[in-house]
Amino acid sequence: MVEISGHGGAHAVAVAREYGVDLMFTLSGGHVFPLYDAVVKDSSGMRLIDVRHEQTAVFAAEATARLTRRPGLAVVTAGPGVTNSVSAATTAWFNGAPVVLLAGRAPDYRWGAGSLQEMDHPPLLAPVTKRAWTSHATAEVGTAVNEAFALALAPHRGPVFLDISLEALYGEATLALPEAAAAPPATVPDVGPVAALLRDARQPVLVLGSDVWLAGAEEAALRAAQALRLPVITNGQARGVLPGGHELLVSRARKLAFGEADLVVVVGVPLDFRLGYGAFGSAKVAHVMDSPAGLASHVPLAASAAGDLTSFFDELTAAIEVPAGDPDWAGRLAEAARAAIAADAPLLASDADPVHPARIYGELLKVLDDDAVVIGDGGDFVSFAGKYVEPARPGGWLDPGPFGCLGTGLGYAAAARLARPSAQVVLLLGDGAAGFSLMDADTLVRHGLPVVIVCGNNGAWGLEKHPMRALYGYDVAADLQPGCRYDEVVRALGGAGELVTSPAGIGPALRRAFAANTPYLVNVITDPEVAYPRSTSGVLSRPGLRGVVSLQRPFSSAPSRRRSLLTYVCTMLTADVGGASPHSTSTIASNRTGEPAGTASNPSTARCPGASIRGPPLRNQSCPKSGYRKNSVKLTTSHPITAMRSPSWTTSPSATCIRVTVPAPSARTGISIFMDSRMTSVPPSSTWSPSDATTFQTFATISARTSATAYSPLRPALMSAACSPGTYRSPR
Prior knowledge:
Helices cover 30% and strands 20% of the residues. The protein is an alpha/beta fold.
């Protein structure tokens, strides 16, 4: 048994070392001086990294935990030190990162008298941590810190908050050093129900999330995918479990995979907005997490399992023994993924002026090493990274996760450089995100942490600007300073950087940045009119929102045999769906603008000008948690390409306007219209808006035929499933 003598700070640091912690991230404050004193006197070499904002300290601790799979430690002073940490602690909570956040606290003996920064912190942190409490005595500090680390590491991992009163931290005591808590025994999940579903599935898909990496299950996941021949879509830090180019990695065929799968097995990630809230067309869903509390309760599951994820994959492989699904299913998805990647080439090599954001990634991919750590902190700019950058190894990707908090980048970058000293570290920074944490380039400089920062500078909050224009016809509070010299900010702080305004300058600038051995910001001025074609927003089902057709590429640039684009027109509920009785299938009318609309009163026999109704409803299934039934009927119109302009719309001279009318069964019914046209993109100015509650228009260049499917009625929670994935865009 080891005894420790000294102040409360010495006890806390000694316990942290028992858990393998060798970094303390902080911003100086008098309430926590004993913790710094303990680090200075720590013979084992714990390093103190002080930053310029408390959120950066917690973000760095979170990134340390996510990269090393050991607990991260952040220390903040009382009052504003704690309140400045809340967003970062919340990010760690959403990401399941084992972080211990220690804080100072006003003295107990004057509590209530108005001491400097007196505040009861735990109620503020309790909702976004596994536990938040106070240690009031020096003799308790070691035990409390030991409990904090053990709790942070227990499944499901997450942040823990402990503040320590002034007298407890500065007081002296001699006590036995608590031993690090042993990891709880692994819970072997019951794989039987999931295995039974896989045996029967013809077109299964496996989705891997960040917890696969954090739980150390990446090798077992790869073994299972390969043994069972399962097509895989990766999410978050599971990116790289199957390296880019692997035949079973079909993330780029996500739409086809989710649209045609009959079983989707989701492991290590919540069924949240990133995965359409767990609705994958008609597919059955199996959800697997490291603890029962993480299993989805908002969507019906065909099977579930909770426990050690390595055990899950190994047991599943042993239970099935033979490849799952139809022999050609994985190959078909792989072919679609390869085609999508091949189609990226023109944008990745774009010579557009101003610079298209995709060109930055085309150049970055040429110089990235396999072990690079790629960090995303931004909106539209980082969305392009998610599409084009496929890590070669697991654990090499960091983004803010589902909480979507900007400002993570500099803290993540500092932690990555410390955790992976020999690897490339690249921070992809939106110019909006730069405003949250760029001063911490000073932290990188002071602590000798060379990082390459690539700033996509479009002078706007792109993720908000374009949707607001589409919703209201204008935008406000969405513009930043055009051409702002963020590179000069980093230079002023002691780093280096340069401005890039042409596509040809990107590659050479990146090579100089990687060779510089100092924090280096490459400030690339990009086209503010280019918006990422977003299909997932997290607010897709919010009542009252209208959809936007996302348009990317002119018709003339498409290959002649592939002049087509899949466009979705999605509309949101303007009122809640009421009642619980089923409704019949809606009727549909379709015509070209200027022609009288025909009405299909009988879906199996009616005819419209230029349109035909094909067959009975394609799907007829019960909606979860509702007495409603979801009915659909498909209409197809065939017509040539027509050049026309509408005086009330901004559209391409070569666009055809198609009008689809869906009479609603009641005023309280939501309609979702899918225009499945196989069209090329038309210019970004082309949009659509509703003319009344159930009539909508869209413009596009039609090459063959247009199909519309009406769904009636839909609950608000199901709207995202109806519209996902596609090219629907909405505000963050």
